[in-house]
Amino acid sequence: MPNDRIIGQAIIGESLRSVDYSPKGKFIKVIYPDSGLWKRIKIKGSNKILSSKLFFDDNDLIRSNIYDDLHYGEYQISYVSSFNDTIDEKLSFYDNIELMLPKKLSKFYSEVSIDDLYINNLKQNDTLQLLYQNYGCFGNSETLTEFIYTDHKIIQRLYEKSNNNWIYVANKHIKQNLISFVSKAKKLNKRNVDLCSSDEMYIFRKKNTNKISIINDKSCELIEDIEHILYPKQSN
User: Fold this and answer.
1) Which of 37, 87, 153, 198 has its CA 20 to 30 A from that of 139?
2) Total-model pTM
3) Residues 6+ apart with CB under 8 A from 133
4) CB 87 within 8 Å of CB 79
5) Which residues are registered as beta bridge partners of 166?
6) Do the Cβ atoms of 196 and 220 come closer than 8 Å?
């Protein structure tokens, strides 16, 4: 894949504006899906995580990341899910390549009914994860929350992707809010009302398992409830 055939716009460093760009030297182009649970890749060489440039190809405007000025050789590629699960593979890099996420990743999680989720059945040392995805007209966002069950209480924390850090949240009503949210979600899934201008998705998982329960809130009825869970100080 010659460099001069890849022409587009790239955001370099901390800049907020794109510039005309073509890959420099030897390069890897990674194309990401617009939705789903696998949307992050890390590439490591010589025990160092490689930096990339956000890139928009002039031919199709598809968002991708360019890793360029590379040396041929062996690299490690890590696929990272929205639940922070990671699958590592070796990458033999001896020619410029365009990568897409492998189809096998879509089989990593298996969907089960939300009807099988009972908050009161969770016990000490269990961790419940809730992934909130919002796909709207003006952009996408997602928030990962964990509820860690201990002897006497539930500890809540939010994941900050930008800092790769967890922020702990004080929420004295968390158990009641979770029970109420799941109860409403079970009723919601039996309806077929599309009143939302955005896609509101709530995905539950018991940590360290591969089973997930997906709620598609087509009516936007759960927006206020999710605010009580994610931002209790502002909403309680």
Assistant:
1) 87
2) 0.84
3) 35, 82, 140, 141, 142, 199, 200, 201, 202, 203
4) yes
5) 159
6) yes
Mean pLDDT of the region 87-104: 93
Three-class SS state of 177: helix
CA angle, 125 then 126 then 130, to 5° = 140
First to last CA, the chain: 56
Mean pLDDT of 135-139: 63
> What is the C-alpha R_g of the chain?
21
Q: Give SS3 for 42.
A: strand
Segment 144-148 long-range contacts (CB within 8 Å, at least 24 positions apart): 144/82, 144/83, 144/84, 145/229, 145/230, 146/207, 147/174, 147/178
Q: How many residues are listed for the chain in this entry?
A: 236
| Token reading at 98 | 């365009």
Average pLDDT over residues 188-193: 61
CB-count exposure of residue 118 (10 Å: 0-12, 13-18, 19+): exposed
pLDDT band at 202 (very low <50, low <70, confident <90, very high): very high
**Tokens (6 digits) for 15:** 């800049």
